[in-house]
Amino acid sequence: MHTDLREPLEAAWKRNTPFVFFRLPNTADIHCYWQEDNTLHTTTDFDFDGFLFAPFVAQSNNNYIPNTFNKTYSFQGTTNFDPPLTEFEEKEAARTAFIQLVEKAKITIAEGSLEKVVVSRKITIASEQTPIRAFEGLLKRYSNAMVYFFHHPKIGTWMGASPEHLIAQEEQLTRTMALAATQSYDPQNEVVWDAKEREEQGLVTAQLKADLEKFFPPEAIEVSKTQNHSAGKLVHLCTHFKVHQQTSKLMDLVQCLHPTPAVGGVPKAAALDFLARHETYDREFYTGFMGPKNGNALDWFVNLRCAQWKPEAVLVYVGAGITAASNAEKEWEETQRKAQTLLVVL
Question: Is this structure's pTM higher than 0.85?
Fold first, then answer.
């Protein structure tokens, strides 16, 4: 770790005014935006320059840190490195509650109102690291993810390493992706996807395509073949979408895309209703979206593989996509694997 990054990290944390450090996937530069006061900036129309930090539940005002004060730092060691997955113990009550939630989802799917819903949970741990050390660990381990460290005294402290684009725009190009299904990743072995995992990915892809067609002509939308997308020790099924044009209705497009079927469900309204009634906690910024916007260029990611840093504990958030073919025990194990992204640096 270069001292030219460590020192400003420590200084920003000690100052306790709003800041964000972030690195886009497969790049080397770490960008920092910061404020010199504690104003909570919000946007109602995405007409801003800075770093957006939006929650899971849609709202009219979304938070951002302006890029008025900004600097870029260098970093060495941008190679994916992940130690072997380690077992961690949780209370049996947590496992039981999650499995019951999965079974409720399967019952609702069987009744016909849902095709897929993404259920989640949070893990409370006492970290042995400082947030700065944890962020450095994410930078070292996840070069192909959006890695960020966000702090605002009026919002809280969050960090993560997200593999999923919500939307990216540059010049006359709009990109997004359908990301679903999860397995442990071993480059020495071929990944074999079962019918449930392919069904889950198919639902996400079909819904995303339908959403894009509300804003772009079908013939303008390029859809890639579904491929494997590795992120640390995990691998997902991924389909990329590309449109060689932008829409002037950015707010409407984002409201249509978010939350994606990869974090909410299909149909969207029924999935969100199920989660509001049964998930029993506030996701806050987990599965919201975040990232930089400068002029007409933006890079926004779904806030996955993230943790909320509090003085008394760290909250790690994980979820799993449920379909009719889901096995509750396997879905629990999937959330355990996803949690390793953060736990390995905490």
Answer: yes
